[in-house]
Amino acid sequence: MSIQASELQRTFGSVTAVDGLSFEVKGGEVFGLLGSNGAGKTTTIRILACLLSPTGGTAKVCGFAVTDEPAKVRQRVGLLTENPCLYERLTAFENMDFFAKAYGVSSEAERRQRIGQVLDFFGLWDRRSDKVAHFSKGMKQKLAIARALIHEPPVLLLDEPTAGLDPKSAKEVRDAITQLSRNEKRAILLSTHRLEDAERLCDSAIIVEKGRRIAYGSPESLRKKIIGSPVVEIIMRKEDEKVVEMIRRMVSHEALEADGSRLLITVDDAELIVPEVVQTVVQAGGLVLSVRVLKPSFEEAYLRLVEEAAEH
Questions:
Q1: 282: number of CA atoms within 13 Å, CB side?
Q2: Arithmetic mean of pLDDT, 256-284
Q3: Contact yes or no for 40/18 (Cβ under 8 A)
Q4: For 3-218, which CATH class?
């Protein structure tokens, strides 16, 4: 397991920023750390990056405890902070070379090879001689992620990687994150309050509020906590009692809701039932105009879970 956190805590005086968080992240996984501003996401990342010490609980990165072996943890972690600091008077190549040396890549030949690889990966090689001050915000963000990769860490900690980016730049960063996890099998902890990013990128996620865990699972499993079984909507060309009666024979009476030419069917497995239902409608002489599985957006599921946690 690349990251293991158990009952992690961090207090600042009387304020508890992280309150008993436990989770695991394995190689090749994008794990979401989701929550509003002030939920404790950045503090958690700073603990895992050995920038802060926990006041309770334990955390390990690649088997090394953050409290006992911070140097070994830092060697295995690439960190993108919410406000990455780049030297704007230096070129992209000079920035990368500086940080490669800081990470202990002492061989000049090795640095040049690695810099070439990561700048090419992010489409920045042709701009390697340009000063960073002339880069767009999206280019700076990609350069900051490239910097986090310069020492080839197996774990990436990304704090709001698409914050403030235009749609095109945000997509490019998301695509890069996907490739880094799936093709290079890096463990990626993604801290974000942009639920679009979480839904598109994360294999699993933890939702935190006021430092506490309120939900844990894949985006799909978190949806299911809200809606239970999926609902299939079928729109027919016209109302047809014969069709409705035939479908009632397939599913329980309570599972079918007929509203004119619109049918709503609550099912356990939408992929299994939809072909059978459509075939039944056609055999009964009905004409299907559309079929879709109704489910809330991940944003709706997230907001409902947060509201329910607040009520308790």
A1: 10
A2: 85
A3: yes
A4: alpha beta
Cα–Cα–Cα angle for 292, 217, 213, rounded to 5 degrees? 130
**Residue 254 pLDDT grade (very low, low, confident, very high; cuts 50, 70, 90):** low
The residues pairing with 257 across neighbouring beta strands, listed in sequence order, are 264
Q: Could you give the CA distance from residue 184 to residue 176 in angstroms, rounded to a whole number? A: 11
Residue 158, classed as helix, strand or coil, is strand
- Residue type, position 234, single letter: I
Mean pLDDT for the stretch of residues 113-138 = 96
Closest CA to 153 of 250, 65, 62: 62
Q: Which two tokens stand for residue 259?
A: 């509203």
Spell out the residues 6+ positions from residue 73 whose beta carbon is closer than 8 angstroms to its own. Answer: 48, 49, 50, 61, 62, 64, 65, 66
Average pLDDT over residues 41-62: 97
pLDDT at 248 over 90: no
Q: Residue 54 and residue 295: Cα distance in Å, rounded?
A: 39
In what helix (H) or strand (E) does residue 50 lie, and over which residues does it extend? none
SS3 call for 312: coil
Q: Is 227 helix (H, G, I), strand (E, B) or coil?
A: helix
User: Do 117 and 147 contact (CB within 8 A), yes or no?
Assistant: no
Give the amino acid at 231.
V
- For the record, the structure tokens of 307 come out as 């509201």
* Residue 129: strand, helix, or coil: coil
